[in-house]
Amino acid sequence: MKDINILWFKRDLRVKDNEALVESLKDRDILPIYIVEKELWKQKTYSDRQWQFCKESLIDLRNSLEKIGQPLIIRTGKVIEIFDEISNKFNLKGIYSHQETGDYFTYKRDKEVRKWASMKKIIWKEYLQFSVFRGNLDRNNWSKKWKKNMEKKLLLEPSNINPIEIDTGAIPPDNFFCFKDELCEGRLKGGRENGLKRMDYFFSKKLNSYSKDISSPEKSFDSCSRLSPYLSWGCISLKEIFYKASLIKETNSKMLKSRLTWHCHFIQKLESEPELEFKEFHPYFQKIRKKDNDFLKLWSEGKTGFPFLDACMRSLNFNGWLNFRMRAMLMSFASYNLWIPWQDSGSVLASKFIDYEPGIHWNQCQMQSGTTSINTNRIYNPIKQGKDHDPKGNFIRKWVPEIKHYPDNFIHEPWLMENFNSTEYSNSKYAKPIIDLSKTTKIARKKIQEITQIDGYWDISKEVYLKHGSRRTSLIKKKNHPKKINIKPKGDLQYELNLEL
Ligand SMILES: Cc1cc2nc3c(=O)[nH]c(=O)nc-3n(C[C@H](O)[C@H](O)[C@H](O)COP(=O)(O)OP(=O)(O)OC[C@H]3O[C@@H](n4cnc5c(N)ncnc54)[C@H](O)[C@@H]3O)c2cc1C
Hints:
47% helix, globular, DNA Cyclobutane Dipyrimidine Photolyase, subunit A, domain 3, Rossmann fold
């Protein structure tokens, strides 16, 4: 039997700057494979829009690999069964992949694969995809490690892969999955080629207006890099973006680089504690919220009666992407005003994002729900956000056409119109607010504050901080944290993301 290595593509769907690919080729021929796992795609956080993006990226990768000798092999099923099958036909020496910090499903699957590989005496080597580190970690030196890794040279794509005789397999048809029917017509298309085009467009045309437009729901759609899905599916490496940004010495590129740090900072938390996907950072916040499927549905469809909030949700439903501030506002509303568990709303949001990245996503969901105990809590007011970022209501009118004829001065709060209940307006079929905003905000704030006063709260918070907190700013010690934290105390500043690099 022929000796081979498997190059297991996961969320690193590219040939350039892919260390696992380069290393796998060093000592023998390889089988480059992607496995479509039905069980993974069945999870609530996954959706058709993500699969379409992934599929486009697989086609692009298959073409790129074919050009250098061996097209991508696609298999459908359970990873161990497929590896087992391959090991019956070839003398499987090694498995090479990137080190994945995915959701709990992939965490458990990888543990099983490791067990299987060691039983079969097959080496599994994993390489860094981002600057996220495994094993015992000293958070104090994390930034230095991050920078050192990011400044490593970019790896070239291999010039040749020897072909191996094997059926390359087909990408499964869409009806193989059980996704609910949806259209996401505005989404970006997957694949490295499209990612590179987007990256060039951003750096050549949009970097200048990046910081200015970042929170505007309308302008950010063009002015933000929107490279997140290409990073999440690995069509482009983080280092490639960092490298491009480093060539430009100005404030906006510095700001972009700081966001790339945050990207890994959040994923690192999930790497250090995989349970964060469903378990609160601080245990005192467990089970404080109540399931409400009616609220969840109205929120998810953009039918809460708060025009700006609904406009953001509907644009997300159409585009599969939304800027940071608007994501935070949607999450905050679900957690504080509707008081529904962040695990429920977080799963719904995840499935809408084509850039779903578990490490960033679940951390952000918890941060915007006040359950970390180490971040400043912010309850977003959707009316104020609308007035600040869509003063004339253009964005609202685009996404909530039922109310496009409402006068400018009432577009954010139509219920204040004297004749709101008249047929002219009730005919618009736009819902009345489903909750009382100021009342629910007050109740939520009180509930969260009461929890912080329970005995032992701050001791646990300190532990959370020591394990996960960023060491860059001194927010926690100076303002919030009554317990003295005595290693250079620095907290997470979620809204001012501009770290000095
Ligand atoms: C509730 C909630 C859920 C989120 N879920 C995800 C998710 O599943 N996947 C995801 O990639 N981002 C997520 N984010 C973070 C952020 O909103 C997106 O990374 C950003 O909007 C992507 O757009 P962009 O590529 O244009 O970002 P840019 O502003 O151009 O930034 C470049 C890159 O930096 C990283 N980045 C930017 N902002 C952040 C941030 N606040 N935290 C961590 N990394 C950041 C991303 O990788 C991004 O692609 C979430 C934010 C919130 C509030």
